[in-house]
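Long-time lurker, first post.

We've been arguing in lab meeting about whether zinc ion would sit comfortably in this protein at all. Half the group thinks yes, half thinks no, and nobody has a model to point at. So I'm putting the question to the forum: if I give you the sequence and the SMILES, can you give me back a predicted structure of the complex? Inputs are below. Any interpretation is welcome too.
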Amino acid sequence: MRLPDYHTHTARCGHACGDPSAYVMAARSRGLLGIGIADHLPLLPEPDPELSMGLSDLGHYVAEVQALKTAYPGYVFLGIEADYRPHTVSDVASILKDHPFDYTIGSVHHLGAWGFDDPRQIDEYADRDIDDVWTEYLELVGDAAESGLFTILGHLDLVKKFGYRPTRTLAIELDRLVERIARAGILVEINTAGLHKPVGEAYPTLDILRRLWAAGVAITFGSDAHRPEEVGRDFAHAVELARAAGYRGFACLETGLYGRRAHVRIRQFDAADASPGRPAAGSTGASSS
Ligand SMILES: [Zn+2]
Ligand SMILES: [Zn+2]
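Top reply:
Settle the argument with this. Predicted structure of the protein with zinc ion, as tokens:
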């Protein structure tokens, strides 16, 4: 399938396995258009060895992926997935600026101190008003989009991961978020990892994808692979979702001239991408919320 996968992790983050070269090999054997390694930026302000590499490891990570970029020019990209947390924005910005990342994925994994997508902290949902959780989350994602720090917004509706849905439609909040994303000119990934979580559907829902398409927001693709064999997983299904929402193309990265950082280009789906696909066994398929 001639699609890129820009969201992959490695053993460095403490909860994935495989080194970057194993992910590149997997992408090549699957015939992907390109691959980005986007491991977790060290979590600030409190490092957690189960969530990300440590700061002292970042230089090694960059060097390792840079070597793969040299070995596979134009095919491998150096990315990073950075947490958007209001109190760490300036520290994250300075780390991003100090490293030659081709692109950055901005993700919200926390509401305050609560890591709402962390299975170790799932009990907290019982103490929360779920509509408040969603509105607070959507607001933070909009802030991340407008921060100017990121190329791609990660797993746009991650807050649904464990199946906790809002009790109302949130149409006004979603329209406002999509408007902020469109104005910021940031990309949104279709992230297929959600198919294998309790929610059983990709991020974001078809309903949100339709809003993004209508607002002119470009999409790209990420498996959020935490093992090499997950690279490009369920991408045929992701293309079906994109097409159902109205999309006829997607954004991909290209190497900048003279060693400059990658830039974004829009590419049309080709016939090979249009083949019908279903989520892999064990997942329940996608539906809009
Ligand atoms: Zn993430
Ligand atoms: Zn991720």
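For your lab meeting: The mean pLDDT is 92. The domain at 4-274 is CATH 3.20.20.140 (TIM Barrel). Whichever side wins, do check it experimentally.
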